[in-house]
Amino acid sequence: MSRFQYFLAVDWSGARGQFHKGIALALAHADGGPPVLVPPGPRGWSRSEVLDLLRALPGPTLVGMDLGISLPFADCGAFFPGWEESPEDARALWALVDRLSAADPHFAADGFVSHPLAAAFFHHGAVMGARYRCDGAEHRSGRLRITEVAQRNAGCRPHSNFKLVGNGQVGKSSLTGMRVLHALAGAVPVWPVDPDPGHGSLIVEMYTAIPALAVGRKPSATKFLSYEALNEAFAHPAIASPALAGSGPLTDHEGDALLTAAWLRRAAHRQELWQPQGMTGHIARTEGWTFGVA
Fold first, then answer.
1. What is the number of other CB atoms lying within 10 angstroms of the CB of residue 252?
2. In terms of CB atoms within 10 Å, which end of the chain has fewer, N or C?
3. Model pLDDT for residues 128-171, shown as the tens digit of each residue
4. What are the domain boundaries of the chain?
């Protein structure tokens, strides 16, 4: 039986500005019932408000955040090979991103990606950095972490966290998320960068396509845009959640958060997800892992 009383899903956004319609939160209780959306203010959630919520969780909570908690390391032996400031592990990476973005408000990361040495590793709009595909990177879409290679093998379609533009870009959301995780200052452990202490709350990285695939969706159709579509998914054995009471349309962010919260409640009991085959201790400390990728 899981130790967690609550399961909180955070659908994240790396967009500029203070408030974001692209951030959605949903909460499921261990005692049952359907997950519920956590209502934002009238202008949407801010990243600072999410940070405050993480600092004041209501009880032992498994938090799934839809962002990349680190960058590729194993493929090239470093986050930024050839740069003397290249960090040794994920927590040092968060600190570097935060330091170089200190002048950016609302946990943005423009200062980091525009840094003369860091910029060479990212794909910025029409400009692809000279080191976007460093020696040893084998994927046409850019560098991938070991967990993202495992995602591909499981049928997902991950993108490189060095990608800052276009369909599927995850770089901006990941970098802004790293700043928030750094600001959290260890108040909640982040698995597997931090070992699971076996009690209290825990943050994990989520990829919302994983719950969608678990209920039989195709990789090209992982969004749930209505209460009716979600309730069909909730009836699947992989989730087995009571149905939502509402009806009609949902945003893709709301659908992702509700599905993920319900899935986390079920998946937290699966021991194999806490011991993925491809995750070594070094990978855990440097690249991290996506919960749900065995």
1. 15
2. N
3. 888 887 765 555 668 999 999 999 999 999 999 999 986 667 89
4. 6-69+183-274
